[in-house]
Design a protein that fits this description.
The chain has about 260 residues and is α+β, with helices and mostly antiparallel strands. The protein folds into 3 domains: about 110 residues, Alpha Horseshoe (Serine Threonine Protein Phosphatase 5, Tetratricopeptide repeat), CATH 1.25.40; about 60 residues; about 70 residues, Roll (SH3 type barrels). It has a 5-stranded antiparallel beta sheet with strand order 7-6-5-2-8. It is globular, with a radius of gyration of 24 Å. The C terminus is likely disordered.
Length: about 260
């Protein structure tokens, strides 16, 4: 009898969960439709409020939504917010037009950290497709392992094949567990950069908002960043981090 009630509860729970998700999805669609409608009639502050609400509550966005948010922010004089949304868009969807927009705003306000190279563009493309690379390395590793087993079973010479297999495994481990691209952040407001991860450390320099920096690691509430070729620290509440970093950056081991 208990098993029967448990099954009923599980089924009811799944139905309720599905219904809630569907209702939440419909709510987001309605909110985005309303925001887009307000944007079309140039009611930008009202549209921005809804876009921000959707982004903060769901952490979901589309390229069009981020582009509109950047447009509104730039029009309001909030170039830091505009650059953040453009960077976020470029992080997940590298595009040359977005790149030009960022460079134009950065040039207008004389901001550092926005010089993009072909290598960086390639690295962002890697970031977009790295999941496919992971599965490719795993698949090649699996095939290489089966091939080695067959060769061993038939008592044939293996040569350098075990080394190739080890390299494939190492690459798969590297791509799966480490962030190959150093994460970026935008300085949120005028603040001090410190020589150490402490408010009592020596002040390294003072920087204005809008500059883009490379994040090398994190210690408590302090980010280790690269500024003008030197490592320094900034408090996390003074930095807008671009994208989520679920994996540890491999660059943190060198600093």
């Amino acid at each position: 009898m208990q098993s029967r009630y448990l099954k009923i509860l599980v089924v009811v729970g799944l139905i309720l969960s599905t219904s809630v998700q569907a209702a939440w999805g419909q709510y987001l669609k309605k909110q985005l439709f309303l925001a887009d409608s307000l944007f079309k009639i140039q009611k930008y502050p009202e549209a921005l409020d809804i876009y921000n609400d959707v982004l903060n509550k769901s952490n979901q966005f589309s390229p069009q939504m981020l582009m509109k948010m950047a447009y509104i922010k730039d029009g309001m004089g909030d170039y830091t917010g505009a650059l953040y949304h453009l960077n976020l868009l470029y992080y997940y969807n590298p595009d040359q037009q977005v790149l030009l927009q960022m460079e134009e705003i950065a040039s207008r306000y004389n901001l550092q950290g926005y010089s993009f190279t072909d290598l960086e563009y390639f690295m962002f493309l890697y970031n977009e497709y790295y999941q496919y690379l992971i599965w490719a390395f795993i698949a090649f590793s699996g095939m290489a392992f089966v091939y080695l087993v067959i060769k061993k079973y038939r008592k044939l010479p293996l040569g350098f094949r075990p080394m190739v297999f080890i390299i494939l495994l190492a690459l798969a481990f590297l791509f799966t567990n480490f962030e190959m691209i150093p994460q970026k952040g935008i300085i949120k407001n005028r603040t001090y950069l410190m020589s150490g991860a402490s408010p009592g450390a020596d002040r390294f320099t003072t920087v204005d908002e809008g500059h883009r920096v490379t994040i090398l690691g994190k210690q408590d509430v302090w980010y280790l960043i690269l500024w003008e070729g030197k490592t320094t620290y900034i408090q996390e509440n003074n930095l807008l981090v671009i994208g989520e970093q679920s994996k540890k950056s491999i660059f943190s081991y060198f600093f």
